[in-house]
Amino acid sequence: MSYKANQQRYDSMNYRFCGRSGLKLPVLSLGLWHNFGTEADDKVTTDIICTAFDHGITHFDLANNYGPAPGSAESRFGKILKDQLSSYRDEMVISSKAGYPMWNGPYGDWGSRKYLISSCDQSLRRLNLDYVDIFYHHRPDPNTPLEESMGALASLVRQGKALYAGISNYHAVDALKAYKILSDMGCPCILDQVRYSLLDRVVETDHLLDALSGDVGLICFSPLAQGLLTGRYLDGTIPPDSRASENKSLKREKVTPQLVQTLNGLNAIAVKRGQTLSEMSITWLLSHKGVTSVLIGASSTAQLLENLKAVGQSQEFSAEELEGIEKLCRSL
Ligand code: NDP
Hints:
By secondary structure, the chain is an alpha/beta fold. The chain has one domain (15-226, 285-314): NADP-dependent oxidoreductase domain (TIM Barrel, Alpha-Beta Barrel). It has 12 helices and 10 strands. The protein has helices spanning 42-54, 72-85, 113-127, 146-158, 172-184, 202-205, 208-212, 243-246, 257-272, 277-286, 301-308, 319-330; strands at residues 15-17, 24-26, 28-31, 59-61, 93-98, 132-137, 162-168, 189-195, 217-221, 291-296. It has an 8-stranded parallel beta barrel, surrounded by 6 helices. Strands 1-2 form a two-stranded antiparallel ribbon. α1 crosses α2 and α9 packs antiparallel against α12. The radius of gyration is 19 Å and the shape is globular. The protein binds NADPH dihydro-nicotinamide-adenine-dinucleotide phosphate. NADPH dihydro-nicotinamide-adenine-dinucleotide phosphate is lined by residues 31-35, 61, 138, 168-169, 193, 221-227, 230-232, 242-243, 278, 295-299, 303, 306-307.
């Protein structure tokens, strides 16, 4: 049966502009890196997407290689879109990326014009779309001129295959160069997608936050440190259905007694604020100027619903809370 979206879907979500662009994103966006591959359950994944949309999450983030198998998350999302959400396409912001290994041979990886343009074409076919809203270069390529990679993004925008361009995983110095090149080509970079969470502060030490200077929006991936910043690991064990149990992108050995102690310290601060650890982790990111959206993942609708509670919560942190958070995070 065809899905009908909740009429109240825009009542409680907040939206922020991507830098100086006219595009707004929900403060919470949903990414399909995990949990949407070939092995995923049709009903669970459809429910997650529709529940997200019902709560004002209009932005869904993909990449050519999301799965497993690579490409399967885009194919799955394309099918859910076609079957359930096709009449809502203009209410959605769908992004994809290329930059990591995707197909064999010299043209299926990194940042050449050849790779980026053919990969975007492949993504559009899998997604069953005429255009994506945002297309990102997924990581910097030290062996391709930045002008070539950024030129490919600008071409995709000119061809109407993407509405906006973005970059991801660039360090501040190269990010600034990329912003300038794109801007000079009349195709401003509207979003920079970076790993940022209470437990991962590289963007702070790299001065990327300063580099954005209001022109480019920041969208934070792995805001819950792949699940570490949730209730999942507080007792120091690794639940059998958790991401750490897979021992791939999140290694089991990461869950050390010291980390668990830090997580419990953070959780105690969250509880005092009347939040769960995941809610506090999201509101802490949203309290930062320059953050457009927090890009979460979820393996169930229940997780998504818990994380959505963060949207209406206070993003004010007392000096004491901030000091406590910094002390705990610096101790790692
Ligand atoms: P998170 O840090 O939000 O981790 C999501 C995982 O945490 C879930 O799959 C689930 O794992 C667990 N989780 C989430 N909420 C809860 C909860 N309330 N209670 C308990 N467990 C919870 O983000 P991801 O690492 O998944 O990244 C999000 C998105 O960011 C990706 O889908 C992708 O779109 C993007 N991304 C971009 C990258 C880039 O290079 N540009 C790199 C990585 C991600 P489980 O239940 O399985 O344990």
